[in-house]
Here is the input.
Amino acid sequence: MTQAADTAEHGQDAQSVVKKFMFVNRKAPYGTIYALEGLEVVLISAAFDQDVSLAFLDDGVYQLVKGQQTKALEVKNFSPTYRALEGYDVEKLYVERESLEARGLREDQLLVPVQVVGAAEMAALMDSQDVVIGF
Amino acid sequence: MLHIVNKSPYERNSLASCLAHTAAGAAVILIEDAVYAATRGNSAEAAIRKALESLPVYALAPDLEARGMQGSVIDGVKVVDFGGFVDLVAEHRTSQSWL
Here is the structure.
């Protein structure tokens, strides 16, 4: 295959293959590296123009709590990044109602606009994806 | 959807959360430390038995054997080898790992 043909083929591939990716966040933000690493992967996949959505359940809902201050801990506060996702066309953020309620959290305590869904609806959303990656 | 769980039910809530998010046509496979959930008398036995009413539950034989639990598997849980695991991944359109 010539270089030009090779380039053309890959260019076409990049345009035609858009998959539904869901990143499932189930860990609290600073105790482990999962939340931060998950966010990095979300940004990478968004750069490839994929149909990206994020799910927050179990301790993952703590990632979105407003007012995170990490100065004394001397680690990066990555919570503002969730607000930047919109700029990468990542606008589907689903938060599980049961997980919020079990932790005494309300939607107005979260730092970005989200869609609050029940466990059954979350299960259906997961089932509708092409790729589901858990963190 | 094939749901893959690899943590002991005593260590994390991965299995409970997985079982709360299964849709029609789903299957669950227990690997690594999650195979303890497939054994008789463990704290997750009731949840596994309830799950078996609506979906298939598998446990990975090499992980059961390594832990000496191969003789304690709950009735109805299907034991598969690595090849069987690969078949399950191939049979389902998507898979999801519950870390």
